[in-house]
Design goal:
With 238 residues, this protein is of the alpha/beta class. Helices cover 34% and strands 16% of the residues. Strands 1-2-3-4-5-6-7-8 form an eight-stranded parallel β-barrel.
Length: 238
């Protein structure tokens, strides 16, 4: 297991967050993509906190972070219990059906619904869910073996079987060092969402969030770009 991040600086995180938001704003200005109105018109910056120690979360709040995403059900429970009032909470990790009941009381969005067993557990534990819970369907656009996600040709039926409202789609493109390699996958997800009238697209991480914003993302999931103390303050370019 990777070592948890500690000794964070609110000043450094704030500078990184401002930089990320500025890059997103520039991306939106040059993007030809027509964005939906209302809540999905902009791009939310979600701080991925999988490797952030629980005691460091108040530092994120002091830096201006308002939305966080957790990958593990137990970590989500622990962190919400300690600092639940500081943020809006999403679940962004691989969704194990047996953990659904632990997740639904705490989050506004689950980004990673991709299995029939998860749908069954969402139905079973719907009474435990936080008011307004919605889900995003994870789509395996590249058809990568062993990777979670609904196949595009199975998406409509999957959405129809969802027991809670579907707010949009999520994808993780094939791993690449080149952010531009993600562009066709992001564009394809945008088209799938547009065809189905789904406003939200969770796509883009620290590596390719600028491309994701250009291609219509409404939520980007940022980890290292926020927590790296030299990303902005040390003079190294993002």
């Amino acid at each position: 297991m990777a070592e948890l991040i500690s000794n964070l600086s609110a000043e450094s995180i704030r500078a990184n967050l401002e930089f990320v938001r500025a890059q997103i704003a520039s991306a939106l200005e040059r993007s030809p993509v027509e964005r939906p109105a209302g809540e999905a018109a902009g791009v939310e910056v979600l701080a991925a906190t999988k490797y952030v120690a629980c005691e460091e979360l108040p530092t994120l709040a002091a830096a201006g972070v308002s939305l966080v995403g957790e990958n593990r059900a137990q970590d989500l429970q622990d962190k919400v219990q300690a600092h639940g009032e500081l943020f809006d909470w999403d679940f962004i990790g691989q969704l194990q059906s047996r953990r659904v009941r632990l997740i639904v009381p705490h989050v506004r969005l689950i980004h990673s619904v991709a299995s029939e067993s998860a749908l069954r557990e969402l139905e079973r534990h719907r009474h435990l869910a936080r008011d307004g819970l919605r889900i995003l369907i994870e789509v395996n656009l590249a058809g990568e073996p062993g990777k979670a996600g609904v196949q595009p040709d199975q998406l409509d039926g999957f959405i129809a079987r969802a027991p809670v409202p579907v707010a949009g789609l999520m994808t993780m493109p094939p791993l690449s060092a080149d952010p531009e390699a993600s562009r066709p996958w992001f564009a394809a997800l945008r088209e799938l969402g547009r065809e189905r009238g789904l406003p939200h697209l969770s796509m883009g991480t620290s590596q390719d969030y600028v491309v994701a914003a250009e291609e219509g993302s409404t939520i980007v999931r940022i980890g290292t770009k926020l927590y790296d103390p030299v990303a902005v303050t040390g003079g190294r370019s993002h």
